[in-house]
């Protein structure tokens, strides 16, 4: 199989971004009566108006991201808000995608694939590892983008695909422009295809062939790569997940599938973080970490400028390693002085330190760690400590900003 390894499965996730004050353009994908374009549930509504004003004054993040709440019946991270995404399947790597992309022209297709996979020797292992010949026709960078687009369509109904001619125009247009989501003239057609894709991921390729659509892989930028820790007490399922980010030119309506997902919200990183720290919108550490990065940017345009920076470095794989010291529980991240030089990816043991947290900070000043104030990783009481430099074209969390969110949540 293309994306199944002995100890984990490979997956892709999409952080979908739109400007907060952007007018809704064109026909929105109103697939079902449960479509939403902004938070409606109390879980993500702050009733303290004073706190809301304070947040807006301090953290002017003028953009929103799409978050989905996983079903309580989900086998992995139930009842948790996540970015849309899921495991890769064989069809994402199929050679049958080549005719789809060749509709752009063979030269354009070749240049597109090369631009997406530039810097491959320095890429994360999920992009560089050898696959069976049956799954090697597409660069892994393309296949995982297809996976992210397909899973986003399955879980939210948002489809990042365009007819071939429009795709060609978009590719030739100026870079750093917001990307369109599909505005199909007949929403029922998309609804029916979504149902088919939910039942069988192979139908996504068939849909693109029949509707003359090309997945907008060029609009997705690498953002991060997370490997589930070996000592995750919540679940023994592990995933090596590529996180992508895409900025769209309007706010497409999102509709849950009532299976894996039960709620869909467009919300700013600041409001999502405040909801998490008030324990009204629980998120796993990777989501909190990524939102803590995004909250330092002011707009979707700022995000595009960052991720499209020339010579931007490829993402590295982050596998948090569980650790305890005298007075705290932590996840140690790559770049931290405490991170092992050669971590055991398959069965890394718990790291134990006799020092206090303050002593560790003094003895090991290069920090990249998540510190937990409770036993559960899903509780709101966590702190991110970062004192290492960011890679070119990337941004790391600002721990002072995160502390202010925690303080606001206590008001």
TrEMBL record:
GO terms for cellular component: mitochondrion. GO terms for molecular function: hydrolase activity, acting on acid anhydrides, in phosphorus-containing anhydrides; metal ion binding. It comes from the Eukaryota. InterPro entries: NUDIX_hydrolase-like_dom_sf, NUDT19. Its cofactor is Mg(2+); Mn(2+). Keywords: Hydrolase, Magnesium, Manganese, Metal-binding. PANTHER family: ACYL-COENZYME A DIPHOSPHATASE NUDT19 (PTHR12318:SF0), TESTOSTERONE-REGULATED PROTEIN RP2 (PTHR12318). Belongs to the Nudix hydrolase family. This is Nucleoside diphosphate-linked moiety X motif 19. It comes from Lymnaea stagnalis.
